[in-house]
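Quick one, tokens below:
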């Protein structure tokens, strides 16, 4: 087992001091970057799905001290979990390209969904575009290393070690695409079945959750190990368990209050986006911690 950074007293402050301050600064930075997007959403006259029956300004409450403090706390916890495995060159470091898109975009979408039960299309597609650019960056970096290997004197490939193959160059991008498609296919199937066979006019899951599945599936495909269960499947399982637990608690609370669930189904409904993002972050944290052993 590799030596952990907190194994001795001298390195404890290095691990728990400076990184903690760095995580706080990163969380503040992510919150500040979110402000222009929240302000733009504040003026949105309709919901993300074009439902004119929704409140005139569904995102108005997002520009408030209460929401921003919760968003800051969510960024802090997410960055803390992702940073448990100290690796400044990790593609999932909070301030790396993919880390920024994954943490900043995913947490922001989850918090918006938790407060408004809606996922704005424009922001979802923006985050997805950033992740596609991050995957392309990883691919181009590997291709550059393949075409122009670093000299041995500068830390390049030592004698006897096999250099990168073209399969290794494009494998991360292929895994990311397959992971995103798998996530969209699974939740898309659930959304379609719920919409077709649901007892109410409102499907149990919105299509925004299907788009969000692609957002979490694309980055999780980068850490896929050949021959193992796809990380996105684990993330969806964890997210589903969190969603089931949340639904059970809301159902128990509604029954205790004596509410008629058949007449008021919205009393037990809840946004599924936060559960998906939490499942993705926990899965990525688990993968990184397993690499320590």
């Amino acid at each position: 087992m590799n030596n952990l950074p907190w194994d001795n007293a001298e390195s404890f402050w290095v691990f728990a001091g400076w990184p903690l301050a760095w995580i706080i600064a990163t969380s503040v930075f992510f919150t500040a970057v979110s402000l222009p997007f929240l302000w733009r959403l504040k003026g949105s006259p309709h919901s993300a799905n074009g439902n004119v029956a929704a409140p005139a300004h569904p995102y108005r409450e997002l520009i408030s001290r209460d929401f921003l403090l919760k968003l800051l706390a969510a960024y802090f916890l997410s960055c803390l979990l992702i940073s448990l495995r100290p690796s400044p060159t990790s593609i999932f470091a909070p301030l790396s390209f993919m880390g920024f898109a994954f943490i900043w975009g995913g947490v922001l979408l989850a918090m918006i969904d938790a407060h408004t039960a809606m996922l704005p299309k424009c922001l979802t597609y923006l985050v997805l575009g950033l992740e596609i650019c991050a995957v392309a960056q990883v691919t181009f970096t590997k291709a550059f290393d393949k075409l122009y290997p670093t000299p041995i004197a500068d830390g390049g490939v030592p004698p006897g070690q096999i250099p990168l193959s073209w399969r290794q160059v494009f494998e991360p991008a292929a895994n990311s695409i397959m992971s995103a498609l798998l996530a969209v296919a699974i939740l898309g199937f659930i959304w379609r079945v719920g919409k077709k066979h649901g007892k109410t006019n409102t499907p149990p899951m919105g299509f925004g959750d299907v788009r969000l599945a692609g957002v979490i599936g694309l980055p999780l495909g980068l850490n896929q190990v050949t021959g193992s269960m796809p990380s996105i499947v684990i993330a969806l399982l964890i997210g589903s368990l969190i969603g089931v637990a949340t639904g059970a608690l809301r159902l128990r609370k509604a029954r205790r209050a004596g509410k008629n669930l058949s007449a008021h189904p919205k009393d037990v409904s809840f946004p599924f986006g936060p559960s998906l993002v939490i499942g993705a972050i926990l899965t990525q944290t688990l993968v990184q911690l397993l690499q320590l052993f």
